[in-house]
Write the structure tokens for this entry.
Amino acid sequence: MRKINKVVLAFSGGLDTSVILKWLQDTYQCEIVTFTADVGQGEEVEPARAKAKQLGVKEIYIEDLREEFVRDYVFPMFRANTVYEGEYLLGTSIARPLIAKRQIEIARETNADAVSHGATGKGNDQVRFELGYYAQQPDIHVIAPWREWDLTSREKLLSYAEKHDIPVEMKKKTGSPYSMDANLLHISYEGRMLEDPAKEPEESMWRWSVSPENAPDEAEYLDLEYVHGDVVALNGEKLTPASVLEQLNKLGGKHGIGRLDLVENRYVGMKSRGCYETPGGAILLRAHRAIESITLDREVAHLKDDLMPRYAKLIYNGYWWSPEREMLQTMINASQVNINGWVRVKLYKGNIVVVGRDSKTNTLYTPGISTFEDDDGVYNQQDAAGFIKLNALRLRIAAESKQKK
């Protein structure tokens, strides 16, 4: 076993990472640095400090990364209208590159020679974290306990915690029926009851949203203001990126928006059933496409749509720091220069309805040309005959060939 002097551990303070902390100390006889990232999971992160201290950790990092998360990761992703496999808004995927980057920075600051995470050997997160580590520091040593130890169940983890006097809030064999992950963009649910894709999730599972049936009977209107493809104001109030997403989550959840029940294809090769709540993200996606509809050139819009699935797969699979993702991002960002204006949406019982959009400076929509009424003086309808015949040429040739057979 390689001699390790110091490890930076991505530490939540929960059962898994608390056991990992003690296991690292015992297995590698090394010093531990804990890093807890606040990316808007909605839980107190300070208890992680007390837990780390109780387990003998001297260097403890707890950092608020919410603004950086939305500004530098979520918003750039939504500029591309990114959706994985037609439905998933990549809430878990997009948080990992930021956490990995900061973890490596802390490793450098503390002269650590290894990093560690609590992702399991069956999931995508191990790939996302470790690709992020290696992209930032090629020679970093990675310790993935779930691929090394024999603590392969919750019961074994609880037994280990009890044996080593590790404080655990719930030393029961029951606990939460789901594995959950949350940040400012979404909350996810996996495992246990959800492993049967034929069973409908219990209503009590959902944390952020009411069911559409129980949503208000009156619709609510929102005005979103855009500058270079990003929302900068909501209902006339200027907001930071994180504040925008926080407000949209509350409003969308109130109206039963953003629920998803999905069987997805994991990068590691298996299918997995997960449920997600992404109310703010669902609104952002719909509104962004609406502002692009009047400000983005047709061929640019279609090219973005062609490339988006590739871009989404890169993020899902953990390649945020890859040169191809960065190349695509440069193109996407360039497409957003003129995406300025406002969009009005109506929220009602699980639905997001675009009811207005405008751009005073960059609209490509010209009512005088689009109208069916008076002659616009620009578009000669007779020109369409030649346009159609030229485009029909190959179809006519194919038809004549078939008739000769």
